[in-house]
Amino acid sequence: MSGEELTLLLGEAERGVTRRLAQVFADHDCTVGRWRTLAVLDRDGSRRMSELAKVAQLAPASLTRLIDGMVADNLVYRKVDPRDRRSVLVHVAPRGSKLYRQLSERIHLENGSIFGDVDPDELADLVNSLAAFVARLR
Q1: Rounded to whole angstroms, how far apart are CA atoms 121 and 26?
Q2: Are 38 and 100 in contact (CB under 8 A)?
Q3: DSSP state for residue 45 in the 8-state scheme
């Protein structure tokens, strides 16, 4: 398989899964960008805006608008970084953690509609392979 073919397939897979996730999240009035942000913050506790922009796959200006909306909806809050007063950390609020848990449950329940009829063992192998691949890219 060529690098070009891999790149095209990864892009197609990402767009397909994102489209299906958006349908699942619509009931919760949540976007995939909000979910990605909540997932990172729920796992890590807090992140700088620049770090979140990379993880959420958004331009800094778009992330600022996203975080502004999430702050307004009481899903996250900002706090000055005590180690670097020039930086702002974003933290998940209790309401954001609750929404993230609901979305995680929904992903689990809708696994078939998101990933089709892919065998769970194949999915686990794919996750492991992609995790190793991404680690090498860092």
Answers
A1: 28
A2: yes
A3: S
Domain of 69: which CATH number? 1.10.10.10
Which stretches within the chain are classed as H helix?
3-25, 32-44, 49-56, 60-72, 94-109, 111-115, 120-137
pLDDT in tens, 16-42: 999 999 998 988 889 998 999 999 999
Max distance between CA atoms of the chain, in angstroms, equals: 49
Q: How far is CA 135 from the centre of its chain?
A: 17
Q: Over the stretch 57-87, which tens digit does the pLDDT of each residue have?
A: 788 899 999 999 999 999 999 999 888 888 8
Task: Output the pTM of the full model.
Answer: 0.83
Provide the residue range defining the domain that includes 84.
3-137
The pLDDT tens digits of the residues spanning 106-116 come to 998 888 888 88
Number of domains in the chain: 1
Say if CB 72 and CB 53 are below 8 A apart. no
